[in-house]
Design a protein that fits this description.
By secondary structure, this protein is α+β, with helices and mostly antiparallel strands. It contains one helix and four strands. The chain has one helix at about 60-99, and strands at about 10-20, 20-30, 35-45, 50-55. A four-stranded antiparallel beta sheet has the order 1-2-3-4, with no helix packed on it. The protein is elongated.
């Protein structure tokens, strides 16, 4: 299903589910090519939606962002460790030259 595609859908509030006072909605519609029912639920916590049935996600944006952030943190920690080792080596070299 392409982005910005119009569909006839049923929109309903999910009873008993809220996130920080925001209502969670369920959208039920039919696939344009095979006419199977698809149900998705809004996810305001992650600024996304959750597929309940009838479809599968190809790409999960929030998971990809989390993995990217973890990789950046690991690289930053490695760089910090390298800088610390380099500084320690300079201190040792200075001490050797002073002796």
């Amino acid at each position: 299903i392409g982005q910005n595609k119009k569909f006839l859908a049923q929109k309903e509030k999910v009873i008993g589910e809220e996130y920080l006072g925001l209502a969670i909605f369920r959208l039920v519609f039919r696939c344009a090519s095979c006419s199977n029912a698809i149900s998705i639920k809004t996810d305001p916590k992650n600024h996304d939606y959750t597929v309940e049935f009838g479809a599968a996600r190809k790409y999960q944006h929030h998971i990809a962002e989390k993995e990217k952030a973890e990789a950046e943190d690991a690289a930053r920690e490695k760089d910090k460790g390298d800088q610390l080792a380099e500084t320690n080596q300079k201190v040792l070299d200075t001490q050797r030259q002073a002796s």
